[in-house]
Amino acid sequence: MATSKVANGxxxxxxxxxxxxxxxxxxxxxxxxxxxxxxxVHPPEKMEVRIKxxxxxxxxxxxxxxxxxxxxxxxxxxxxxxxxxGVVESIGQGVSDIKEKDIVVLIFNGECGECTYCKCExxxxxxxxxxxxxxxxxxxxxxRFSTIDGRPIFHFLxxxxxxxxxxxxxxxxxxxxxxxxxxxxxxxxLSCGVSTGIGAAWNTANVHAGSSVAVFxxxxxxxxxxxxxxxxxxxxxxGVDINPDKFITDxxxxxxxxxxxxxxxxxxxLLGIHSSPKLLPIHPMELFDGxxxxxxxFGGFKGKSxxxxxxxxxxxxxxxxxxxxxxxxxxxxxNKAFDLLIDGxxxxxxxxx
Length: 353
What we know:
about 350 residues, Quinone Oxidoreductase, Chain A, domain 1, 2 domains, 16 strands, about 25% strand, zinc ion binding, alcohol dehydrogenase (NAD+) activity, ADH_Zn_CS, EC 1.1.1.1
């Protein structure tokens, strides 16, 4: 049985077609500390890709899922994580746009490029690989992870990145080309949070010069919204958060006294996965005069076809990805990284595998 060790940095062929034994941070119950243990990662099946994870970070959605805040979504043992970058170890039958040794970013909201949704300009969802919080196995109904004694381990949000190796659908893998001014660890930020925030400002809200924006919640996603709004030259950004430490940032730059919301055309954009319908107490008449509420998944970006363009803009200095990485830790300290997020002390803690 193959191990996670690779003979040289230029090739991963030693493990192709074999079951890999490697380390993963496994959650065995709601809120229980992660256990870094040896697991088995099986070869990719048709239209799947196996990836050696190099960097992964922690999003609040991982925190909510780990806690089991939404009972119907619970599944244990499970490998959480959905923000990561790495290198392709092997590909399954039928994969043509990704090859071994490619440097890639993983995305939780995939794109097959062929279904009705992917061909529609009105949505970035995908019939085959779109995000589904209830999904816990691969598309064929089986897991690519198992314990050393052969018991299945569940997947999470199409990705499962808290492991040295993972297997994902090919539609959830985006090839990137790191440059001198933007390393692979910085590009990891495009895997979820930063793309979601920037896209909410650019694609969903379509902010522009003269717009005013209020951001509720100044975590990584909220600050990405603010950074996206700043990059588009909005006239005012108002930040709202119950944690006063979150205001120590240069992303929030109010410049005049313009009203943030107008009757007739005010737009509220909802981001993230929410555990209860009780979180939105609103009277229908609040929308009577033209105000709108709109959801946004992955910032409206079609991941495989549009994320490379966002990466290019970041490389050109449009967005400073490095600002979102506030901590870096070795993978074995994942529980410490979660504590930083729970205590409101980090935006993104990058784990090195």
